[in-house]
Amino acid sequence: MEDEKLYIPMGVKAEAELFPGFGKKQLLQAVIGSLGAGVVSAFVWLLSQSVTFTVIGVLAGIVGSVMMTTKDQTNLSVVDQVQNMVRFAKSQKIYPYRYGDEWRLG
């Protein structure tokens, strides 16, 4: 019994994934990012009339949004990290402290 080790399965996920680190929630985020990149690319096309820049912008938006929403081994994506940074920036940073002579010394 002493030599018996507890087996914890690694990589067990609560949700089904399309590929490692990319599930349905990340797919929705990537679609929203891709649509945003498509809108920006449409404005680029209206200004430049260049199909090349427009196609490159759309493809870069799709690839970039998938890369930014895919979770790594720490189960965080770039989007999650940015959300954590914004939440931290909004949090309280000043902790007022008043000295109290707890032991009534001196």
Task: Summarize the model shown.
With 106 residues, the chain is mainly alpha-helical.
Q: Top keywords for this entry?
A:
106 residues; mainly alpha; two-stranded antiparallel ribbon; 3 helices; 54% helix
Protein model, in words:
The structure is a single chain. The chain contains three helices and two strands, in the order ββααα. By secondary structure, it is mainly alpha-helical. It has helices spanning 24-48, 51-69, 78-90; strands spanning 17-19, 22-23. The longest helix is centred in the middle third of the chain and has 25 residues, at 24-48. 54% of the residues lie in helices and 5% in strands. The N and C termini lie far apart (59 Å). A hairpin with a 2-residue loop joins strand 1 and strand 2. The chain has a two-stranded antiparallel sheet with strand order 1-2.
Sketch the topology as an H/E string, one letter per element. EEHHH
Q: How much β-strand is present in the residues?
A: under 5%
SSE class: mainly alpha
Mean pLDDT: 84
Report helical residue fraction: 40-55%
Assembly type of the chains comes to single chain
Total strands: 2
Give me the side-by-side strand order of the main sheet. Answer: 1-2
Distance between the termini: 59 Å
Main beta sheet strand tally, sense and closure = 2 strands, antiparallel
- Principal-axes geometry comes out as flat
Question: Compute the gyration radius: what is it?
Answer: 24 Å
